[in-house]
Amino acid sequence: MPRGECRRQGWWHGKFRGCGYRITSGREVILDVLSKSSQHLSAEDIYMKVHTRYPNIGLTTIYRTLDVLSSLGLIFKFDFGDGRARYELAEGPKGVHHHHHLICTRCNRIIDYTDFIDEEVELLNQTEKGLSRKYDFKITNHLIQFYGLCSNCAKK
Predict the structure, then answer these.
(1) Which of 47, 78, 104, 135 is least enclosed by beta carbons within 10 angstroms?
(2) pTM exceeds 0.85
(3) Contact present, 87 and 71 (Cβ < 8 Å)
(4) Is the dihedral of CA 75, 150, 83, 26 positive or negative?
(5) Residues in the chain with pLDDT < 50?
(6) Residue 134 sits in the same domain as residue 120
(7) Domain end call among 95, 112, 142
(8) What are 115-150's pLDDT values in tens digits?
(9) Is residue 153 located within the same domain as residue 103?
(10) For the chain, how many structural domains are there in total?
């Protein structure tokens, strides 16, 4: 990986060191691929992109690395109901980019939902506070996925 690229992506280095993990070129290139993607990539998608730059890396290494990155909280692993795990960065250089997902059950299109209105934010805050009190549970994050039909599929 070119030197400038490592410096630009250096925001995740502290997370590795803090948990006692080394920053390997394989881990770094996977994070780089995810940081440049606007899609939710499967392990196979990531492998195809990484393999062009690092032909010696195997799919097993990709899976192992994704498990490590997920356990460190650097990436999220999603199941959108299509039988393939998908991945995305938990945060970027500018911090957490919280969003929810709208998933079309017909064409498998995934829409990142980010334009929350005040009422939605208030409802989520109230829900988190209520659940925290009710179960004496400290909520640190949440994941919401809505399933249905996108506008194209609904017209068919």
Answers:
(1) 135
(2) no
(3) no
(4) negative
(5) 1-9, 93
(6) yes
(7) 95
(8) 777 888 888 889 999 999 999 999 887 778 888 999
(9) yes
(10) 2
